[in-house]
Design a protein that fits this description.
single chain; TIM Barrel; binds pyridoxal-5'-phosphate; pyridoxal phosphate binding; Pyridoxal phosphate homeostasis protein
Length: 215
């Protein structure tokens, strides 16, 4: 599917949900995609991209940022504390803040660097053992903790369990965000971004639907 098709599907979903056109930010997830495909999407004007791994992002994005102005890079995958500095130097947003230790590291580095990317706190809405994120019952406390550290918490992020109706998870995430006064909702991927938009997503993370299957 082309970038234009995805953008028009997002616009339709915004209108259908009674939301403003442009309310939703499309994050084009370029992880594991050949550079030529990423460059083609940059040529079409897309500037917001998502990467899963700091190392992979550091390998390709400094070059792209030299060639294309205004790149907005979002880290959407798990972040180890020993990669936090590199992530903060390279990325404009981090969607995977999932534990107090990482939050404290980010707060310390923010002081040191004098800036901090926009942060989304990951909630493990499906309470899956193998998945990162705070449990729904711990979310309010974690949000408060991050805010007390003066971190720029923009919103929440979730990755619903595979094979389940994502809608219930999006609703739960939206409910936690609303009761904490957070506006950002990073939810929805290739298979369910329209559902996520209907439920208030502000950022959708779409990879394979734009770029094709990953190598
Ligand atoms: C890979 C990935 C995506 C994009 O998935 P697609 O199904 O290719 O759209 C979105 N979010 C996260 C956290 C991912 O790791």
């Amino acid at each position: 599917m082309s970038l234009d098709e995805i953008k028009s599907r997002i616009a339709k979903a915004e209108v259908a949900a009674g939301r403003d056109l442009g309310a939703v930010t499309l994050i084009a997830v370029s992880k594991l995609q050949p550079n030529a495909r990423v460059a083609a999407v940059l040529e079409q004007g897309q500037r917001c991209f998502g990467e899963n791994r700091v190392q992979e992002a550091a390998g390709k994005w400094p070059d792209f940022m030299q060639r294309f102005e205004g790149v907005d890079l979002h880290l959407i995958g798990p972040l180890q504390t020993n990669k936090a500095r590199q992530a903060m130097e390279l990325c404009h947003a981090i969607h995977s803040v999932d534990r107090p230790k990482l939050a404290k590291t980010l707060a310390r580095l923010a002081q040191e660097l004098g800036h901090c990317p926009d942060l989304f706190l990951q909630v493990n809405t499906g309470e899956e053992d193998q998945k990162a994120g705070v449990l729904p019952t711990g979310a309010d406390g974690f949000i408060t903790e991050c805010q007390a550290l003066d971190l720029p918490v923009k919103g929440l992020m979730c990755i619903p369990p595979v094979g389940e109706d994502a809608s219930r998870h999006f609703a739960l995430l939206a409910e936690i965000a609303a009761r904490n006064g957070l506006e950002g909702l990073s939810m929805g991927m290739s298979s369910d971004f329209e559902t996520a938009i209907a439920q208030g997503a502000t950022h959708v993370r779409v990879g394979s639907a734009i770029f094709g299957t990953r190598g």
